C-alpha cells in the first residue's frame, strides 16, 4: 500500500469513527432525558458530551488527513520513483523491389546524428566533479508550466504554450541522488541551443526541483522545444513542449541624425584707421586795382 492509499484509508476510518461517536452521543442523550433519577441522568449527559467532543476531534482529524495528510507524509517519507521506459518505435515493413541490376556502391554514407543525446566535448572538458553518479538514481517526467508555487509544484501545467511568453519552468521529482555529481541541463529550440548550465549537484538525495528558461518576449519563436538532462556524460531524460503564435514585435527606436559640427569662422583683420587729411589754407584775395 502506498502513502496516498494509507492516508485515504486512515481518513475514511476516522470519519466512520466520528459518525459512530455522534450516534452514540445521541443515544446517551435520549436515554438520559427518559431517566427520572438525577445522578444517572447527569452521568448519561456527561457521557453524551464526552462522545460529542470525541466525534468533533475525529471529524477534524479526518478533514486534516484528507486536506494535508499526503503532503505531510511526503515531507518525511520522500516518494521512491519508478523510471519511465522510453517508448520504442516499431517500423512497419515495406515491400522492397528486387532490382534487376545491382550497382556497386562506391561511397558508404555514415550517419552523423544519433537518437541518444550527448554532451558536447567542449562542455565535458570543463567538468569538475569526481563523484560517480549512482546507477539507481531515478527522476519523474518533466512537467512544464508558466508558474510554480512555493513547493515547486507546477500551476496549470501544459505541453503547448501560446505567445506572449517570458519564462517557462520545468519541474520534476528525484530520488537516490548524490551531492557533488556533475549535473548538466541544455534547452533547445529545434537544433538551436538556447541555454546550457552545468555544475555540481547540491539538491540532496530526494525531493522536488525546478529549472527555467527565460528569454525576451520577441525571442520566443513558435516551434518545438526540449530540455535535456545529463548525469556526468550519461543522458538521463528529455522533456518536450511547443510554442504557438507569433511573438510580439519589438518597438524600433529611431536612429539619431548626424549633425555637423560648425567650423570656426576666421576672425577678420583690423582695418587701419585712415590718416587725417590736412585742411587747405585760405588763399589771399588780390587787392583791388584803382581805376583811372
Structure overview:
- Helix content is 26%, strand content 23%.
- It is built from three helices and eleven strands; from the N terminus they run H-H-H-E-E-E-E-E-E-E-E-E-E-E.
- The protein is of the alpha+beta class.
- The strands form three sheets. A five-stranded mixed β-sheet has the order 5-11-10-7-8, with no helix packed on it. Strands 1, 2, 6 and 9 form a four-stranded antiparallel β-sheet that branches. It has a two-stranded antiparallel ribbon with strand order 3-4.
- The N and C termini lie far apart (173 Å).
- About 2% of the residues have low confidence.
- It is elongated and about 175 Å long.
- Strand 10 and strand 11 form a beta hairpin.
- Helix 1 packs antiparallel against helix 2.
- Among the domains are: 74 residues; 124 residues, Immunoglobulin-like, CATH 2.60.40.2550.
Key features?
alpha+beta, Immunoglobulin-like, 292 residues, elongated, 3 helices
What is the CATH-assigned architecture of the domain at 121-244? Sandwich
Strand order of the largest sheet: 5-11-10-7-8
Distance between the termini: 173 Å
What CATH first level of the domain at 121-244 would be assigned? Mainly Beta
Helix % is 25-40%
By DSSP, the count of extended strands is 11
Number of helices: 3
Low-confidence stretches: 110-114
The assigned structural class equals alpha+beta
Q: Based on the structure, what is the oligomeric state of the protein chains?
A: single chain
Amino acid at each position: 500500500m502506498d502513502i496516498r492509499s494509507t492516508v485515504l484509508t486512515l481518513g475514511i476510518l476516522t470519519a466512520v469513527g466520528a459518525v459512530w461517536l455522534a450516534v452514540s452521543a445521541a443515544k446517551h442523550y435520549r436515554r438520559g432525558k427518559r431517566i427520572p433519577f438525577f445522578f444517572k441522568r447527569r452521568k448519561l449527559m456527561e457521557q453524551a458530551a464526552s462522545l460529542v467532543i470525541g466525534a468533533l476531534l475525529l471529524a477534524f482529524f479526518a478533514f486534516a488527513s484528507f486536506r494535508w495528510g499526503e503532503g505531510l507524509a511526503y515531507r518525511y517519507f520522500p516518494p521512491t520513483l519508478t523510471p519511465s521506459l522510453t517508448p520504442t518505435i516499431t517500423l512497419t515493413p515495406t515491400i522492397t523491389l528486387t532490382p534487376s541490376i545491382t550497382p556497386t556502391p562506391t561511397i558508404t554514407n555514415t550517419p552523423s546524428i544519433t537518437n541518444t543525446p550527448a554532451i558536447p566535448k567542449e562542455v565535458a572538458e570543463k567538468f569538475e566533479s569526481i563523484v560517480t553518479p549512482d546507477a539507481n538514481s531515478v527522476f519523474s517526467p518533466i512537467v512544464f508550466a508558466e508558474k510554480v508555487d512555493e513547493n515547486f509544484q507546477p500551476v496549470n501545467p501544459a505541453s503547448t504554450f501560446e505567445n506572449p511568453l517570458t519564462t517557462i519552468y520545468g519541474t520534476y521529482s528525484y530520488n537516490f541522488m548524490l551531492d557533488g555529481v556533475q549535473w548538466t541541463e541544455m534547452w533547445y529550440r529545434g537544433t538551436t541551443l538556447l541555454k546550457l548550465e552545468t555544475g555540481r549537484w547540491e539538491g540532496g538525495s530526494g525531493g522536488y526541483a525546478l529549472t527555467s528558461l527565460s528569454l525576451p518576449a520577441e525571442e520566443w519563436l513558435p516551434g518545438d522545444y526540449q530540455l535535456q538532462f545529463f548525469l556526468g556524460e550519461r543522458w538521463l531524460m528529455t522533456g518536450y513542449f511547443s510554442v504557438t503564435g507569433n511573438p510580439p514585435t519589438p518597438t524600433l527606436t529611431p536612429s539619431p541624425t548626424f549633425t555637423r559640427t560648425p567650423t570656426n569662422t576666421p576672425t577678420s583683420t583690423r582695418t587701419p584707421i585712415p590718416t587725417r587729411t590736412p585742411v587747405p589754407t585760405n588763399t589771399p584775395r588780390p587787392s583791388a586795382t584803382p581805376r583811372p
